[in-house]
Amino acid sequence: MRFGVLGETAVWTDDGQPVRVPELKVRALLASLLVDPGRPVAAHRLIDDLWGDEPPGNPTRALQAKVSQLRRVLDEAEPGGRELVVSRAPGYQLALTEGSLDAHRFAGLAARARTAPDARTKSRLLGDALALWRGPAFADFAEEAFARSAVNRLEEDRLAVVEEHAEARLDAGEHAELVGELAGLVERHPLRERLRAVQLRALYRAGRQSEALAGYEDLRARLADELGLDPSPELVELHGALLRQEAGPVAPDAPTPRTNILAPISVLVGRDDAIADVRELLAGRRLVTLTGPGGVGKTRLALAVAEQLKGTFPDGEWLVELAGVGAGSGSGSGVGSDLAEVVAAAMGLRDDGVWGVRPEGGVTPGAAERLAEVLRGKRMLLVLDNCEHVVDEAAALVELLLRTAPGLVVLTTSQEALALAGETLWAVEPLAPEGAVELFAVRASAAAPGFVLDDGNRGAVESICRRLDGIPLALELAATRVRALGVHRLLDRLDDRFRLLGAGQRGVPARQQTLRAMIDWSWELLSEPERMVLRRLAVHAEGCTPEAAEEVCGGDGVDEAEVLDLLVRLVDRSLVVVAGDRYRLLESVAAYCFERLREAGELAALRERHLAYYTGLAEAAEPRLRGHGQREWLARLDAEGANLRWALDGAVERGDAGHALRLVDALAWYWVLRGRLGEARRSVTAALELTASPELTASLELADGEAALHARVRVWQVGVTILGGDGEARAARTEASLKEYGEVGDAAGVAWARWFLAHALSGTGSLSEGEALTEQALDGFREFGDRWGEAAALADRSAQRLLRGDLAGAEEDAARSVELFGAVGDACGQLWSVYPRAAVAEIHGDYARSAGLQRDALETVREFGLSTQAADLLSGLGRTALLTGDFDAAREYHERARRTAAELGFRAGEINAELGLGLGARREGLLDEAETHLRAVLEWHRDVGLDGANALILAELGFIAELRGDAAGARSLHEEGYATARSTGDPRAVALALEGLAAASALSGAGKQAALLLGAAAAVRTSTGAPLPPAERGDVDRATARAREVLGEEAAFEAEFRRGEELGADCVHVGLSGSQWGSAVSRQPPSPPRRHMGPPG
């Protein structure tokens, strides 16, 4: 079992399921034992910890009862759990295994980080350590005397690791991001000198020397005032370096790594000239295909070229492996094999923010078109490996991408050409004699450590290399036999085999015969269990974990316990490759083994085992994506993408509706979290189509569980379709899917269905449609005690209330949502409420809190790889900086947000950043630049059917017109903005429009109208509990001054202002001769804006 103290005291089973310890005293007992983990705690101390000054009548017996209760709870959660609470003089001890306590894992990761070879590795390990914290240590007993020293010690350890983490990230070049994130930490811990030191160095390296010097002075003054101390000698030295401008290089922010190509483990032998030739071709050609037979080294050569080109392409170098697309190690295609989605996933692109929401009747582009649009302005290298499996599909995709993205260069490997215009073919030849000898010698010395190439064996090695035609894979397989045979006997054996080879396989190219002969020979030398495991491995796509190998390859003649030993032997023979924690087959070996699998008559059975295993894996992951361990499980599903697609392909091909529905149901939330909405929609649709036949429909009707599953997948289909931007008949589809689920699903499931569809509708602009469903879902979740569901519904309702102007309700819901998500361990879920909480703080003028919330969220976003949320958070920080008057920081944040979003193809994030740049430019007086940004935002909102999001944009454009002296243009824009604001139901948007109309009226000389409108706007803002903060009063103050000047008499202004306060927004209908507002108000744009920070999708 696992225990947690880095947050509330917690217990989990080995597989991550939370264990509820129901009684307070029992939880206190557990906490007291965990204060001294692994050591006996005296009975009298436990009694004092639990009862303090009011002990029970028989303290010893009472303690024994609580111990028994704790043992029973642990044993019920996991058999044998009671044995963990040990009676040991002078009291009791909690028997912990290595790594079972989160505090120990935290300390272990920190210790490993301190010996890390480089700053990035150290940063990653320290980040992993900090991610274990769920809140303050012993949060539920932090005020108890028995826990206080442990709480203080662990908090100090955490802060020390926070400081080390910041230093490692600074050394890795992440100074620009640190500048923003450290501000909140320093504010909370202003006297920690080490923390201040890293902040000062980050500010300096970001080019903000004056702020670094000011920060030092602030610390010096605080130390003197509060502690009567001077700064440490180290800080004094750093201050001097700042003054001398010697505090390290002032460098640009370290770029996000724009590649997924890993450094090679071993040197590529004998290919220097080939690498140079291919690089030269790529310098002048946009499509180069490396051709050649299997085993000749096409993939290794392509990767070596890409590795040498790292940094050459501004938008990176990306590898996409296609061997596993469509059909494991075999051939064919299916639902999971859409190449564009595979490419997008490999590049870390999401498809939930490229196009935005399509209005009713709009057409959502396909995956290939979306990918092409993302790559349109990129300059990058795309490496597509093993295209021969899907050569027609690959050719079509490459043609589209090259036509759309003029800065794209494509390098492919294939046994046949793509046959596209402009394609340059480069035949990968076997190794030259000297290169072949070198490769054989390197591999032979690895297999037989005593082997050395010398004059006595060189002739035999050269003959072996000639016999094997210099084919790298054949040479590597032969080299593994040196330990058993030596080179001379190996040569004799090869001569015998190739005499036999010459008599058969006529019509097959000699080099293919050579490789086949070597793989045949290696196969024949295997034991039967080794052969069985090797051929069964071929059922996997792009490799598998040891656990998958044991379950899928074991049984029916192979003891499952022996699978790993057999795999090690196959690795030693170069038939299986180890890559990290995965085993995989080289493509030529995989094709051979797939053929052997068919010959053995095992293919169908192995496909079923494969499907069963990966369905089980997905179902095990599904609940964990909502709680503790979600980062680990997200990474596991990321790694298994090819196997999951291949498993679903198999279910669809065989018409296995049950497994297909189970698999897509388990994966749907993962696809939503990762922004893979196209894959989600296509996959759930394919699974549902299996049930279209009358026979299958009848069978589903007979099985309530299957019918409920079918209805649940239908809800997923409708929800991801809406989230993906397809607005066609969404209300009707929502109603139909809820009706179907209501007829067969349980009440708890109906609550989930209502929530997910409400989430989809609200997240894409259909606020009114989503609100009612959210309320119904919330009631259902509370009725069934579903804390995760309640948290999710509250997060959505918080954003809905914010859009309606209910700031207190939004804050209340968001705070409760964060609390509930924290209780179930869903760190991603807690991010959902960052936007409403930060927005409410910003509206109230609490900019420090708003920025602090967003900076803290950035840390979580980075840990989970949620880059689209990072883009939005950066924009949010830019907005906060703008409101505090820090225009330089605001521009920096918004530019970083725009770059981040552009790299991901997250168009909505780009637009969000562009809006921020437009707001900043206007406040700096750069009116032309501001209008350019804002017009771009306006048009995009209209293109995707988000007209309701334009209330702010129209107000800003109206203010620009007014600042230019164009009263008529300003009035027209503000009238349209007022109508838009009324349609959203957001009183703050209405108030902004009224303020804009007041400014236009004052400019045109209508002082009474201006005063009236200003009073109305003030009343509307007051009604929301959020009067205009001082930092945002510039436009209002300008309009007020002009109106006062026009009216001349203060009393006249005050009278009209008070009248406006009394009328509120209704003032637009009163006494405004010549106004066209009445007609403007009648125009009702379709919906309020989609929030950018919120639940995934």
Automatic annotation (TrEMBL):
InterPro entries: BTAD, HTH_77, NB-ARC, OmpR/PhoB-type_DNA-bd, P-loop_NTPase, Sig_transdc_resp-reg_C-effctor, TPR-like_helical_dom_sf, WH-like_DNA-bd_sf. The keyword DNA-binding applies. Keywords: DNA-binding, Two-component regulatory system. It holds the Pfam family NB-ARC. GO terms for biological process: phosphorelay signal transduction system; regulation of DNA-templated transcription. Residues 1-96 form the OmpR/PhoB-type domain. GO terms for molecular function: ADP binding; DNA binding. Residues 1074-1084 have a biased composition (Polar residues). Gene3D superfamilies: P-loop containing nucleotide triphosphate hydrolases, Tetratricopeptide repeat domain, Winged helix-like DNA-binding domain superfamily/Winged helix DNA-binding domain. Residues 1-96 bind DNA. This is AfsR/SARP family transcriptional regulator. It comes from Streptomyces scabichelini.
